[in-house]
């Protein structure tokens, strides 16, 4: 076998192996998207109930809560970045990091100091590469988010929020995650979590006792105290679930195009190797014919 | 006694645990135990972790554990929301 032919065969082999791997990853991701989407859907009733309750308290009572009041001056802002633990998902993580970069520029221009919280190995390694420091990071389990992780993140950011800025606390909290739009489209989204924007619902009435007359147990401010952290937690959990669903979708898409590319490579190399084989044969024939001719001429003389 | 029933929704953070009609719901709030029947006034209460007892329309009893959550009542719809909730 000629040297060139052998090189082509090697390349075909390697492309075939790669294709097997990417194909397997594509199929795995495809099966996980459905599960991840189902989890997003399953968490919807909870999110709806919590949002509804928060709007009810916020709308039907007149309480000033530290979590809902806009501070006079925002000195420090926290940014929570949700990425994935593993790569091979196209621009999934880098999209979020780009969005984070844009937000960083914007907040810095407003004169705010930024404190980062990272979720996912990709964000951590990105920060390591750029020699940036993050206040806290969570790694592992981004493809199957747990409620307890969401609670831990929520508790941490709330602790920072409740601290004074001079003691390392923050006045504002942003989250950045990939929103699952559809199987083929995931968009990085920035959301300001705290202080809470005016909660959705009817416009705020003037006093505590307006229809429907909710009774609060033990009292309105205590209920709000207990509800708001739960609300934040459910928002964070939702971001994690969306990010997980997006991760699987992005990976499926990336792996599908990798498989297609491997197919194309195999096809091209097969053509080239056929050509090489053919020309080798042609050369051999012409060598034989030439040799026979030469011998015949010698005999005639 | 009226034959109105309560519509009960028990939801945990990651799934809806149980939905159905019930005659009575007994839950433990931070203030103490509370029993809810149809026609109860709108209410929002913080649950202390513990069990929720639901009496179904046919008299059967259903017990659920609800941890770290709250309960809301309005227009005969009772929503029990907890981070972790499980039927026992």
From TrEMBL, chain B:
Molecular function as annotated in GO: proton-transporting ATP synthase activity, rotational mechanism
An example Gene Ontology CC term for this record: proton-transporting ATP synthase complex
Keywords of this entry: ATP synthesis, CF(1), Ion transport, Membrane, Transport
Topology of the protein relative to the lipid bilayer: Peripheral membrane protein
Gene3D superfamilies: F0F1 ATP synthase delta/epsilon subunit, N-terminal (2.60.15.10)
Subcellular location field: Membrane
Domain ATP synthase F1 complex delta/epsilon subunit N-terminal, residue spans: 6-85
Segments passing through the bilayer: none
Record NCBIfam families: ATP_synt_epsi, PRK13442.1
Similarity comment: Belongs to the ATPase epsilon chain family.
PANTHER family for the chain: ATP SYNTHASE DELTA/EPSILON CHAIN, ATP SYNTHASE EPSILON CHAIN, CHLOROPLASTIC
Designated name of the protein: Unannotated protein
Organism the protein comes from: freshwater metagenome
